[in-house]
Design goal:
two-stranded antiparallel ribbon, disordered N terminus, mainly alpha, homodimer, 3 domains, Clc chloride channel, three-stranded mixed beta sheet, disordered C terminus, about 50% helix, repeat (chains A, B), CBS-domain, voltage-gated chloride channel activity (chains A, B), Chloride channel protein (chains A, B), about 775 residues
């Protein structure tokens, strides 16, 4: 019965409430025109719209769907709730806690594994290279060095391009989008997890200016999501206990804990992890979640601690020291005065400007190269990665030759922890090609793993280690390389590049300050830390979580007010220019993310303005053929059920039925002979709520899985039992901004729009529904 | 036209969604019976219900109202939004930031002031007492000591009882309730602020086992709320710029920042402050708020730092040292092993049990003494406070005599920072009545300000300072005194008492551990810290914010995993027995707080079940007399406006009009001659949106302010312009749990319940509304 001929009085909203293509790059007028009329809707341009809704970097074009946090109140679920025993509720709680425990342990172990691998591979690379350098075969040293790098990056990029395209990049934009209700398929698949882990080992050990922190957040979320899918029904690897978790609400809770665990593992910052999750999940935060996320990160902290203690006993090869980043700057300068406010403000401004500039250029590069790479195909992507790896190798090996050899400071020539010069794979005063007793300050920056470079920049009591020229050269190279690198087809985090850039100009500011206040309590390492904070604030625009992460990283609480101030200034300055980096990437990837605030033009529109097409609806008992036809011809994910009022005979809204539930019913084939026989049968016991459990993303039934005979198509299906009889509704005159708030605050996917008065044909209620974001055509 | 005779088809919901009197002390069946039928509703028992809705400790019985975060979409506000210029939006933003800046500065200065006052008064008290003791006039010493204490507490209690009854207690339950939408009048008045500041100086300096931290949170919120009222219209102290803040949304944002500033100032924990606000404000958290709260606490941190530096130069009398609590335990034991998990688990369990027991006993004491005191009147309250002060003085002066004098440890006899014995007002090894070279360990606990005691318990490198017997004696006394004290009519925080108890048994556990692991890296100060964490977790049940506050207090990030573990265990254990302390007090005070989760029985009820009375409604143009009559005879805060459909002639919902808006219109007296003349007039420009700005709590217009002549009562009032034409609605078959979620997530006060089908008289829509919590009778 679907279609416009009979349902003309009903109107349908297929409003993509925040169509991604209406991003920041278009003028407001376009947005207004585009909204809900031209872009987000209509089957006609479904494919072109779809093009926007997939991750650009991925090769497998798959539609993005939205998550649904609404409680479906249909008879079957109500029945299930009523009959649920106390022991089953206990099971549910136990399963939830057991899963976050597992997520914590697995994430921490993965993080340890990645670290051990990176440290060993990169360590070996440096040891070999240094060996050749010490025998003065510099060309050979470069060949070994560059060979290592290019090979590692090529492997990472091959994995990314051919096996898990969703694993490219940091993954934080996708995680952020997921946590706020946008389900990008494949983003949490086992393939992606596998590629993300191996790829990030390759790209980090391969010397690229990338970090493994962003990818670790993605890895944590992946682990959580895979666990949350509750095993594989196909392979019989599931369990009755897990059925409780098979819905979007619980699955998202789990992924939130996974993201928190990822941050906690990446930075050894358990509280920072929880806060990161809280700051990103702004749309649907719940108290108990805080509590579970906290537990997860505590587990991570304990496992990491144990693992690191074990590694320190020498079980992990070259990864005994360092490994998981902790840049200890405690014990310095716990007394600072008002004159230190000047450099803090300067750093904040610098961070805001350089950070937002970074975002802007990076976005442009990705938009431009994205289109170009799409045309050229997979090989071009790999070539791009190889070229970047080669450039990075040339820079990091070649540029240190520009620096003069400097004599070691007297007090450091005695052998010890911080002796000068150092010859090994890590260290502060790299000898590089210099004679004994001399060091190359530029090599200490370039010819190191990124983490060691950060450690050198942050190190205390090393005032005057670097020359201005070296720092400026490094700043320029790191900034450009980071811009080039973020966007190629390897897993790549942005925290470390941001810290590198920020710490470098922080140290420059510190040196300038040192010239003014000769006897002041100034340590360049502290300025490096503040610089890093400013760049992170200017680029990523997180505040509280970044602040805590930096505190936990550096173990110095006394710097808190300074870090807060720097973050405040840099974020404010950055916000004047553009959005935060992750928001930009969410836009670029075409993820239909609902921002916290409705766009201003929405307060001038009403919910009615978002309605465009004729409504497609069903009766409580509907002909099977009609249902199949509608499911085939549309891609809506929910349909209103309209019933005739018994007294007035006029149609009224009965409820909302989900496409996925219809498909389950069609698959069961419990059809009726005619439209009116439903009152007699007693089939509620035949369909259990477990059958409606939501499978993992992309694994659900599709209409193509349903095969029906012609006779069956003429039969009828009773759908009133699976209808959500209390969907959220708004009147059509409600401002769109208010409806938007409802969408976001409650995590809805569908919203019925009800007319205020009966304008047409004396029909009193007109219903429509809108979807959070467009479903895809499978 | 209001009333049941004409509006019989409409039904009214006056459902107190979470009636406070249905607290934890009643069986579930009672709750179900009571819900929405017996208690929360009906004018009939309005007074008796009201009795539950006022703070028990207060003497001024005033009704509790709920806050409304819904965007009112009526024509006047729409007009205002449309015409708002860019400069005005900028003004709005500027005012908001300027205010949180002010809140930060004022809160920090107040905190500094309280600290300086407490340190000076208490310091003087101890100096005098010690002077008498050194001349062996012990009786005189006690008289001075007890006299000081009783006087200070009496003053505090007099202020509390006669001037600001709302200032008694910690204030955190009320702040928590306000942030989640419950507006208790007087809780944020200038009187309350004044009494809270002076009273908490008195009670803390008077030696009671109370803290000033809870009161400081209240003080911060008070300052924010008073600022947020935008000056006084009555005294002409207002400004056009401030009108933007005159609504519940912005005012609550400001109070949130104030609460964060209070915590930040109390503990010098800026991040902890933000997290505290986040953890308590679970119902309606918004991203930008985080950002502003963070700014506020950063301001607090900077001001405090400056102030303390100034004090250290000797400008603040005896308050040079200490003052704002920072218990530095950094530099100890950054290496702990798995064997330390045993005492951590033990501490967690102890904390959970002792903490929840504390809550239970405290609740019983308050419930019992509350009823008794109500009968006896104000004098009894003051007497209670005086008696408690006397008992505390006797304990703290008398009990140390039970301890043996112990010889000073050899390495501490040289004069220095931690010399033994100490004679002054503060110190670790108190000489008390002992001969030279000896100290009294019990005096170090009892005969000190609470903060100094905590500092002694936390102090590192003092293993073996205390004897088991002394610690047990102190634990028993502190626990009992804290139970007695919290609930008397003085401002009293619970953080410090909880830390005192927890640190004491933590130190006991540490000493026991010390006997097993003679050479282990164990410091009793660390155990004291973990013990404090466990008691706080077991009693208050906050997790993330407590964790951060403790970290910021003790400046030792390496203890983080241990603190997290302890908090997790103690909270879990505590949750098995009862609610957190603040939740309990919210219940006891009868504050109609909406918990995060709807009560389980609500999922078995529908929105229809919450409807009880006939609906009272208005037409778009209503007779003035009818409006006045309704406003006088009911205490609803909103009324649906029902319009007749033009075609079918049947009533449909037009919108919702607020009582406060009606009162403004009545005051303006722009009446119409007859019901049909409204189409002609053009009065929209005559009423500006600023006139509808919400005044501070308890200051609004009431119906008694309206005086009308008989002629005017027969005229008509056009109310369609002020009607919110898109109120949130639910169908009557929606489960009550789902409607509850809507209330809480969106911060609503009213919710229209719409029928699914037309059952009665062929009328298609039946409207009703419910109120978040009962309005009071003024």
């Amino acid at each position: 019965m679907g279609g416009s001929e009979e349902g003309g009085e009903y109107r349908d909203v297929e409003a993509t409430v925040a169509p991604p293509q209406l991003g920041m790059y278009e003028p407001l007028l376009e947005k207004e025109k585009g909204f809900a009329i031209a872009d987000g809707n209509g089957n006609g341009n479904g494919n072109s719209a779809n093009g926007h809704h997939v991750a650009m970097i991925g090769t497998k074009v798959s539609p993005i769907e939205s998550l649904d946090f609404e409680l479906v109140e249909n008879e079957i679920f109500r029945q299930d709730w009523r009959t649920r025993k106390k022991s089953e509720i206990l099971q549910y709680v136990a399963v939830k806690w057991a899963f976050v425990f597992l997520v914590g342990i697995l994430t921490a172990i993965t993080a340890l594994g990645i670290n051990i691998a990176v440290e060993n591979i990169a360590g070996m690379k440096f040891l070999w290279t240094v060996k050749f350098m010490q025998s003065d075969s510099f060309v050979m040293a470069f060949v070994v060095y560059a060979g290592f790098n290019v090979t590692l990056v090529t492997v990472a990029s091959l994995l990314c391009v051919y096996i898990g395209p969703s694993a490219a990049g940091s993954g934080i934009p996708e995680v952020k989008a997921y946590l706020n209700g946008v389900d990008t398929p494949n983003i949490f698949s086992i393939k992606t997890l596998f590629v993300k882990i191996l790829g990030s080992i390759g790209s980090v050990a391969g010397g690229l200016i990338v970090g493994k922190e962003g990818p670790l957040v993605h890895v944590g979320s992946c682990i959580a999501s895979i666990l949350g899918q509750g095993g594989s029904v196909k392979h019989g690897l599931t369990c009755k206990w897990l059925r409780y978790l098979k819905n979007d609400r619980d699955r998202r809770d789990l992924v939130t804990c996974g993201a928190a665990a990822g941050v906690a593992a990446a930075f050894r910052a358990p509280v920072g992890g929880v806060l990161f999750a809280m700051e990103e999940v702004t749309s649907w935060w719940r108290g108990p979640l805080l509590w579970r996320a906290f537990f997860t990160t505590a587990v991570v902290a304990v496992v990491l601690r144990t693992g690191i203690a074990w590694c320190k006993q020498g079980h992990c090869g070259l990864a005994g020291e360092g490994g998981l980043i902790i840049f200890d700057v405690s014990g310095v300068q716990d007394n600072y005065g008002l004159n230190e406010l000047v450099p803090v403000v300067v750093l904040g401004l610098l961070g805001g400007v350089l950070g937002s500039l970074f975002n802007q250029i990076n976005a442009k590069i990705i938009m431009w190269s994205g289109g170009w790479l799409k045309k050229k195909g997979k090989f071009a992507k790999i070539a791009q990665a190889v070229i970047v790896a080669l450039i990075t190798s040339i820079c990091s090996f070649g540029l240190p030759w520009l620096a003069k050899c400097r004599p070691c400071p007297d007090h450091l020539t005695i052998p010890g922890e911080k002796s000068c010069p150092s010859y090994g794979r890590a260290g502060n005063f790299k000898n590089f090609h210099c004679p004994d007793g001399y060091y190359n300050d530029l090599a200490g920056l370039f010819f190191n793993t990124n983490e060691d470079t950060v450690r050198n920049l942050f190190s205390k009591g090393t005032n005057g280690e670097f020359e201005f020229s070296s720092l400026f050269l490094y700043l320029g190279s790191a900034y450009s390389l980071a811009l080039l690198t973020y966007g190629i087809a390897v897993p790549s985090g942005l925290f470390v590049p941001a810290i590198l850039c920020g710490a470098t100009y922080g140290r420059i500011v510190g040196m300038v300050m040192g010239m003014f206040y000769k006897n002041g309590p100034i340590d360049e390492g502290v300025y490096a830390l503040l610089g890093a904070a400013s760049f992170l604030g200017g680029s990523m625009r997180m505040t509280v979580s970044l602040c805590i992460i930096l505190l936990e990283l550096t173990n110095n609480l006394l710097l808190l007010p300074l870090i807060m101030l720097v973050l405040l200034i840099s974020k404010t300055v950055g916000d004047c220019f553009n959005d935060g980096l992750y928001s930009l990437h969410v836009h670029i990837k075409g993820i239909p993310f609902l921002e916290a605030h409705p766009p201003r033009f929405m307060s001038h529109l009403t919910a009615r303005d978002a309605i465009t097409r004729p409504l497609i609806w069903f009766s409580k008992v509907e002909r099977v053929g009609a249902i199949v036809e509608v499911l085939r011809s549309t891609n809506h994910h929910a349909f209103p059920i309209v019933d005739n009022d018994e007294q007035s005979g006029k149609p009224v809204l009965f409820g909302l039925v989900l496409r996925s539930h219809l498909l389950v019913l069609l698959k069961k084939k419990q059809f009726l002979e005619d439209r009116y026989s439903y009152a007699e049968k007693e089939q509620s016991s035949l369909v259990s709520s477990a059958e409606f459990a939501k499978p993992g993303s992309g694994k659900g039934l599709t209409i193509d899985d349903i095969e029906l005979t012609a006779v069956e198509e003429e039969m009828f299906l009773d759908i009133h039992e699976v209808a959500n009889t209390s969907p959220y509704t708004v009147v059509e005159t409600m401002s769109l901004a208010k409806a938007y708030t409802l969408f976001r605050q409650l995590g809805l996917r569908h919203l019925c729009v009800v007319p205020r008065t009966s304008e047409v044909h004396n029909i009193t209620i007109i219903y429509a529904y809108s979807e959070h974001c467009r479903p895809g055509v499978r």
